[in-house]
TrEMBL record:
It comes from Deinobacterium chartae. SUPFAM superfamilies: Winged helix' DNA-binding domain. Belongs to the Fur family. This is Fur family ferric uptake transcriptional regulator. Pfam families: FUR (PF01475).
Amino acid sequence: MMSSSQAAPRRHTRQREAIVRVIQASRGPLAVNDILERAQREHDGLGIATVYRTLKLLLEDGTVRQVILPSGETRYEMSGLGHHHHFQCRRCGEVVDLDVCPVAVLTGTTLAGGYTVEGHELTLYGVCPSCQE
Ligand SMILES: [Zn+2]
Ligand SMILES: [Zn+2]
């Protein structure tokens, strides 16, 4: 018979893997509730506290990163996706990754007055195809 001290870490590993799979499979950064809802399709008993605890660990070990949207909402995506931006639908709230960078000012550029650019953040918003129908 399996002892509970062995079973618990294995359950945690499976929950962690399910949460990572959900974030990897998404077309854009996910809110905690999106992650919970999708991960519950694999793990019925998964609770919001487990999602929060797992996200904290995944942030600490650098597997995922936080995305703060202009609305102040926090979402999560995989680290190491490279430079990219997001589009948020103003009707349904869906956020998707974009593969274009519309910013013409390059990192390292010195602006008038001596301000050196080290990076940028930008979120585009509008209406997604489903909401346009
Ligand atoms: Zn939409
Ligand atoms: Zn950019």
